[in-house]
Structure formats: C-alpha cells, structure tokens
Design a protein that fits this description.
CATH class of the largest domain: Alpha Beta
Low-confidence stretches: none
Number of domains: 2
Distance between the termini: 36 Å
Strand content: 15-25%
Structural class: alpha+beta
CATH topology of the largest domain: Beta-lactamase
Mean pLDDT: 94
Shape: globular
Helix content: 25-40%
CATH superfamily of the largest domain: DD-peptidase/beta-lactamase superfamily
Number of strands: 16
CATH architecture of the largest domain: 3-Layer(aba) Sandwich
Radius of gyration: 27 Å
Length: 480
C-alpha cells in the first residue's frame, strides 16, 4: 500500500491540507478546528486552529470533542461482536429484545424492523436529527415510556433508506439486554480498551480538566457556549467524546480490514468489519452526486467514486459540535476532522482534504501496474491465437472448458482470421495489458483488456477470468 510520507511533495501537501482547515476558522464557520491525516502506518500529520474554548489556544492532540453520529460505527461494531459470539441474530425483530416498541406499518399487519434493518437505516422510522440530538441523557425507563406511547413509522420496515437516530437508540437497548451491561460499559470493555482507545469516553465529566473542547452556537456575530449532556439511553446514537488521534486509530482499524496483512487484529474480525463497510441499504443518488453508487452499511456510509473507488465515511452533528471521518480502503488514506460549532459541516474540509491526498497519490503514480505472471501467460497465449493459425492446445491452456461449449473453437478461429484481415499490420511488440477491475485482487487483472496496436487502430480483447486455479479465461470479446 502507498504511504504518504513517501510522496516527494509531502510537506507541500501537508500545508495545503492544513490550509483547508485553518480557512474554516478564518471564515468563522467554527471557533476551532482540529484534524488528523492517517494511512496504513497510522497518523501522518495533524494540526489545530482557532480556539477550543471561550478564550484559549488552538485545540491540541489531547483535546476531547463530542463526535456525535460517528458513534454509530461503535454501536454497529458492538452489535456485530454480539452476533459473532452467537448471542443475537441480526434477522430477529428488534421487539424480541425491546418489546416496548409497537410497530405501526404496514397498516393492518404491522411488522417490527429487524436488528439488521435498524443497523442499515432501513427500519421504517422517520429521520429525526433535531429531536434525537436532545435525548441523550434520557433514562431507559423514560425511553421505554416513549416507545410504549407510540412511535410513528414512515415506511414499512425494510423497504427504503431513512436515517434514524431512534433506530440506533434501540440498538443500544439491544446491546444492554443481550450483554447485561450498560451500553457505555460494553463498548468500553469490548472495543475501546482492547484497541487502546484510552482517550475515548462517554461521560464528558470524566475528561481531565482543561481537555474538553467547548461547543458553541453562533448568535449574530458571537459564539455562545453550550452545555454538555451526560450519557443515557441515546448514547448509542452520538455519545462518544474523544480525540482526533483516537478516532483516527478507530477508523484506521476499520480500514485495515481490507489490508492483506494483520487485518484480523482486534476484537472484531476483518470479515465483520468489511461487512460494516459494504452497502446494506442503497441510498438514491442525487443529480449533484459525483459517485457511481452509495448506501448505508452498518454504522457507516459507503460511496463508490469513479476516480478513487470506495470511500467510507460518517458525519456527526450535535449541539455545539461537528465531526467527520472518511477513508479510502484501496490506499488506506483517511482524514478525521472535528469542529466545535453546531452542525458546522466538518465533512466539507475533510472531503476536500482526502481528495487532495488521493489526487496527489494518483499523480505520483506514473508507472502502470505489472500484470501477475499468470496474466502475462494468458496474454501471451491470446497473442499467439491472434497472430498465428488457431491452435486448440494453446486455446485449452488459455480458456476454461465453458469457452468452447459457449462458442466452438472453429467459430472463434474464423473470427480472429477476419479480425486480422481488417486490422492490417499488427504490432505485438507494443501490446499492453490493462486491468479493468479496480479494487479487485491480482491488482485488478481478474478482468483485463489486451490492447494490440495495428494499422487500422487497435485490437482489443476484453477478458473475464474464472474462479478455478490455475487462472484461465471464462469469457472474451474481440473488437477493432
């Protein structure tokens, strides 16, 4: 994997990224901002700007911010941990664990959402950011009273994406019922401590004096400080208080599930962490979206960029705070950003920063990836079939058995003979093999194109390799 410290323009890049965040303070989007950039090796560079309190210095590495909905990734990981231990089923209705919830849709035969539906924001509950953000300290008894009084559903469970904090508060209750611990205690004992996230807590009152950033709301031209709320029944939606360093370690650990080495370290398996980062419920694309597809995983947003491949992220917005974490599994690059202003939109500078990092890496990578040896052998065999008389023995070395069954060898031989006539002079010395499966194994060469210059332009073979080893071709189309 690439490393940011290996980039020749590393210092200039760090300055440009820092300027993106310092500008947020200059523009008065927030009183203070702090960020950290990481790659597969850990934190690479970081900085803070503005003020972390009513009057004071810029937030330092140990400054604690509330990260709001970035907490949902901790909640999702805790649920999967219990699932992996055989203690709960993702496909059980949530009412098995929280019977106080009374579903209302579909009309006449209401269905309770499953745990999986709530994890993926497909539970049928309405979007509820303003209301839910004020419920953190609600007691379990008071929460259950709200549930028994009736909850409005907006869609039948499992039918579409709808962001719901209440759904994650219900998951917090599931964790407590199944584990026998409070939500903060279970997450602390089973995730925070094993991963060494020692500066991450759920109770702001436990943060050492002088380390807690003050959250603000802008009133006219002044910043008005806001009080903190303590842990309660809604801690599972946004209760984490932490440093940029700790959240970057958390994000890096999730991202490491895609790394070839050391991916199974920590309390949750690499497979379960990848499950969190896979689209579980699609989100309809907006006309302004510059992505191929997007959706909600488990506690994380998943987007597929045509330029950079998958981008995993989550934002947090709370009275007094805004946060964002995002990373690219293909490179291991990521950014964590905190701001101490209500819903200020920390996702904006974080997104710009990660795009800068990925663009810089793309520009620095001038060499084409080298095909694996097995791909080189397949390409050489295809060239022999293209340039010489058809040879069934060569074809059998190159193709899986279905190829001859799908279209007999004589027909394929005739196709190539016709292609040679139309192509004119063929230049095999300048043939190239180009991967077409970004993010896939074998550097993406499991799907590839063989491109061969010729007088009439270029002969292109589009290839799909099959599952069995040794690697051979299951599908091929030729074009001029």
């Amino acid at each position: 994997m690439p490393f940011l410290n290996d980039l020749s323009e590393r210092e200039a890049l760090a300055s440009k990224v820092a300027a993106v965040f310092s500008e947020r303070v200059v523009q008065e989007a927030t009183p203070g901002a702090r960020f950290v950039v990481f790659d597969a090796s850990g934190a690479v560079f970081d900085s803070g700007f503005g003020s972390a309190a009513a009057a004071g210095s810029p937030p330092g590495p140990r400054a604690r911010f509330r990260v709001a909905s970035c907490t949902k990734s901790f909640t999702a990981a805790a649920v999967l941990l219990l699932r992996d231990r055989g203690l709960l089923s993702l496909d059980a209705p949530v009412t098995r664990y929280v019977p106080a919830l009374q579903p209302t849709l579909p009309a006449g035969q209401p269905e309770a959402p499953t745990v999986r539906m709530l994890l993926s924001m497909a539970g049928g509950l309405p979007t509820d950011d303003p209301w839910a953000d004020r419920q953190e300290s609600l007691s379990n008894a008071a929460f259950h009273a709200v549930l028994r009084a009736g909850i409005r559903f907006v869609t039948a469970p499992g039918t579409r994406y709808e962001y719901s904090n209440l759904g994650y508060a219900l998951l917090g209750q599931v964790i407590e019922v199944v584990s026998g611990q409070s939500y903060p205690d279970f997450v602390t004992d089973n995730l925070l401590k094993p991963l060494g996230l020692d500066e991450t807590v759920f109770d702001p009152a436990t943060v050492p004096p002088g380390m807690l950033a003050t959250g603000f709301r802008k009133v006219d031209s002044d910043w008005q400080p806001l009080p903190f709320t303590g842990p309660g029944a809604f801690s599972a939606i946004g209760g984490v208080v932490t440093t940029t360093g700790d959240l970057a370690r958390w994000a890096g650990w999730l991202c490491a599930a895609f790394h070839p080495n050391g991916s199974d370290s920590g309390p949750l398996s690499a497979a379960s962490r990848r499950e969190m980062q896979r689209i579980q419920c699609p989100i309809a694309l907006e006309p302004t979206d510059a992505v191929r597809l997007k959706g909600y995983g488990f506690g994380l947003v998943v987007e597929h960029s045509p330029q950079f491949g998958p981008i995993i992220s989550h934002s947090g917005g709370y009275p007094g705070f805004s946060s964002h974490m995002r990373w690219n599994p293909q490179t291991g690059f990521g950014v964590v950003a905190f701001e101490n202003a209500t819903y200020s939109g920390a996702w904006e500078p974080a997104t710009k920063a990660l795009d800068m990092l990925l663009n810089a890496t793309t520009e620095a990578s001038t060499s084409e990836p080298t095909p694996p040896a097995a791909i080189g052998e397949l390409a050489a065999g295809l060239l022999r079939l293209l340039l010489e008389d058809w040879d069934d023995e060569t074809a059998d070395d190159v193709f899986l058995e279905n190829v001859a069954m799908d279209r007999p060898y004589p027909e394929r031989a005739q196709e190539l003979a016709s292609l040679r006539e139309r192509a004119g002079t063929v230049n095999p010395d300048e043939a190239s093999v180009v991967p077409t499966d970004p993010g896939g194994a074998d550097s993406g060469f499991g799907r590839f194109e063989l491109r061969v210059p010729c007088t009439a332009g270029e002969i292109v073979a589009s290839v799909l390799c099959g599952p069995p080893e040794p690697m051979r071709i299951q599908s091929i189309t030729w074009r001029l």
